[in-house]
Amino acid sequence: MKKLWWLCSASLIALLTGCSETPEPTTPTRDATTTDVIAAFTISRQQSGVVESDGKGYVVLVKEDGGTSVIETTIMQHAQLDWNKDKLAFSDTENDYIVGTSTEVIPTDTKTDYQQALSLSDDGTVIGLYNDGYEEDSYVEQLITSSTKGSDFTEVEGYFQVTGFCDGDLYGIAEPLGKYQAEAERQGVEAKEADGYTRLMLNQLTSGTTVEEENVSIQAVNSSGQESTDAPCVDGSLYHLASIYADSGETTPVLRIWDTDSGDMTELELVTADGEPVTGPDQSTFEINGSSQQSLRGNDFDWVDDFGRAWRTDITTGISQKLFELVDSYDNSTDTRVVDFTENALTVVTFQQEAEEVRLVQYDRNSGEVLTEIDLPDIAKTIDDSSIWAVSARD
């Protein structure tokens, strides 16, 4: 196991490379590269609520030796990242960015500040989905594609809490509202009074890098909540976790599998080998923490719960086994944890607010062996009232 502490005295006002002198904030440098970078994560303040935003966000590139480069961006809640080979893509409200042997900045149409999907295609096109909020009787999302040739802006309808790319095509799952609410009622799929969503739609949003909004299906579902901005899609099926809300107040975790051709949805309750429901360590209400695009390998779906336990679920039965426990302490009322699976590893970034600590840990996703542990104290000082939204590890 490698355990590293990286100390840097410079403040993170603009983009830093290693521990170089801080550039003037009015002329931030953008010369980061992905050389020796093992993972990246996003930091941004919330635009609304208790915290007043200063409009800033950051992308932190973490190197194998514990060194960092930090790129200053504008604010972007739920800011996502995507690797394509040696290049890393991310977005803010004004630009898309591709970092490889240099940092390429692509001006785009002005975006809203809440991201729900991101992909970097093989031809260098960045595809992003952004929540523009509720308008009249529906939610509106901005679907923006960009490349060195320019940027295209399209509005699509829905609040897509689950998104995933299937062979390069973007799909989203949302409550049917607006024109889709009318279609649901025409099909006889009625909404019910409940704590969660009781009907969901599956929409195709792009065909490759071309916007193509098409409703695949609308399904009645058990009252539930779900959020997955990087859901795995394999052989035409989109996989995501959801929490079923019972009238008693209990929460039951399930795996949902959507066929992107037929629109059919299969739901599997997550249970132990003994057939008992998966619960918290004290039989408490269950909370899901995270999965990612490479959570699925063969018939195994790997994920992390809110109690710091890594699990493996058989996608044919729902039978789940606990693999190991994460080494970092975590209070879900104050701290932030984000996770990402790659072929052989699980990468976790945890921000412990009270201790003002940020730590990146990489585990063998099968055994739980800690492969790398990096403490980032200066990053913790920078976060202040912000949140860590996503991490993406390099294969």
Count up the helices.
Answer: 2
Structural class, from secondary structure content? mainly beta
State the total count of DSSP E strands.
Answer: 31
Shape category: globular
Rounded to the nearest angstrom, the distance between the terminal CA atoms is 18 Å
Poorly predicted tracts of residues: 2-29, 49-53
How much β-strand is present in the residues?
Answer: over 45%
- Percent helix: under 10%
Largest sheet, strands/sense/barrel: 8 strands, antiparallel
Rounded to an integer in angstroms, the radius of gyration calculated over CA atoms is: 20 Å
- Average pLDDT figure: 89
- Quaternary structure annotation: single chain
Protein name: Lipoprotein
Signal peptide: 1-22
Keywords: Signal
Written overview of the protein:
The structure is a single chain. The chain is mainly beta. Helix content is 4%, strand content 51%. Strands 14, 15, 16, 17, 18, 19, 20 and 21 form an 8-stranded antiparallel sheet that branches. Strands 1-30-29-28-27 form a 5-stranded mixed sheet. A 5-stranded antiparallel sheet has the order 2-5-4-3-31, with no helix packed on it. The protein is globular and about 55 Å long. Residues 2-29 and 49-53 have low confidence and may be disordered.
